[in-house]
């Protein structure tokens, strides 16, 4: 049986990645899908190292590699879809981190499917200060001014050569978004299972 996909969801802080990811895995026809929110990887490192510490990024990398080994590449978990949420911008660091997810999928023989979640800036700002985020108990970004700065400076990273899915969340509810994503995933998945590298023809 073919290994199940690694689905990598990339979007700005506050767009609703985790909410939609939870709705999506409830719809997936998969044996116990695995959902790993980016703060499961960020917060253990942030507890020991501030973001400007010279070891912060290397520890983040180490945390990702441990997770890839235990949750993506483990032979007993190949029948489970793995869904990651993330925020990586189109800079050297962001591109490098995104490639780590792609490489983990390749090592495990899993198809790699990136999903890009977008949202209009004003709606994104409204959502970033939501009660759900405020009460999450994580290091999620809550400052709307910081978010505005990120949206001005950064562009969301997208793989040029890998087929992915884009969805604008500005005016749709999470369940509707998850259903729309599932429809597109089901269209792409048969071809992904035949060609796990998921590269676009040049």
Characterize the structure shown.
The protein has eight helices and five strands. With 202 residues, it is an alpha/beta fold. It has one domain: P-loop containing nucleotide triphosphate hydrolases (Rossmann fold, 3-Layer(aba) Sandwich). A five-stranded parallel β-sheet has the order 2-3-1-4-5. Helix 1 crosses helix 8. The model has no long low-confidence stretch (mean pLDDT 93).
Write the layout of secondary structure elements.
Blueprint: E1 6-11, H1 17-27, E2 34-36, H2 38-46, H3 56-72, E3 82-86, H4 92-108, E4 112-118, H5 121-128, H6 131-134, H7 144-153, E5 165-168, H8 174-194
Parallel strand pairs: 1-3, 1-4, 2-3, 4-5
InterPro entries: P-loop_NTPase (IPR027417)
Protein name: P-loop containing nucleoside triphosphate hydrolase protein
Organism: Viridothelium virens
How large is the count of helical segments? 8
The CATH architecture can be named as: 3-Layer(aba) Sandwich
Class derived from helix and strand content = alpha/beta
Separation of the first and last Cα atoms: 29 Å
Q: In which range does the helix fraction lie?
A: 40-55%
Secondary-structure element pattern, one letter each: EHEHHEHEHHHEH
Largest sheet: 5 strands, parallel
pLDDT averaged over residues:
93
- Taken from the alpha-carbon principal axes, the silhouette is globular
In CATH terms, what is the fold-level topology?
Rossmann fold
Number of strands: 5
At the first level of CATH, what is the class? Alpha Beta
The CATH superfamily bears the name P-loop containing nucleotide triphosphate hydrolases
What's the structural domain tally? 1
Q: In percent terms, what proportion of residues is strand?
A: 5-15%
Q: Low-confidence parts, pLDDT < 50 over ≥5 residues?
A: none
Calculate Rg over CA atoms.
16 Å
- The largest beta-sheet arranges its strands as 2-3-1-4-5
């Amino acid at each position: 049986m073919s290994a199940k996909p690694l689905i990598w969801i990339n979007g700005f802080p506050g767009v609703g990645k985790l909410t939609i990811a939870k709705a999506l895995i409830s719809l997936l026809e998969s044996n116990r899908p695995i959902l790993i929110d980016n703060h499961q990887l960020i917060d253990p490192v942030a507890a020991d190292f501030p973001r400007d510490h010279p070891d912060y990024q290397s520890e983040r990398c180490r945390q990702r590699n441990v997770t890839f080994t235990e949750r993506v590449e483990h032979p007993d978990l190949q029948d489970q879809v793995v869904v990651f949420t993330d925020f990586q911008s189109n800079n050297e660091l962001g591109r490098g981190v995104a490639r780590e997810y792609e490489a983990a999928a390749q090592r495990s023989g899993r198809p790699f499917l990136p999903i890009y979640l977008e949202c209009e800036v004003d709606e994104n700002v409204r959502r970033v200060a939501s009660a759900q985020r405020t009460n999450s108990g994580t290091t999620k970004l809550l400052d709307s001014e910081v978010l505005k700065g990120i949206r001005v400076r950064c562009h969301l990273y997208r793989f040029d050569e890998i087929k992915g899915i884009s969805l604008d969340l500005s005016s749709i509810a999470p369940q509707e978004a998850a259903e729309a994503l599932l429809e597109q995933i089901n269209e792409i998945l048969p071809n992904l299972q035949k060609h796990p590298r998921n590269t676009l023809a040049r």
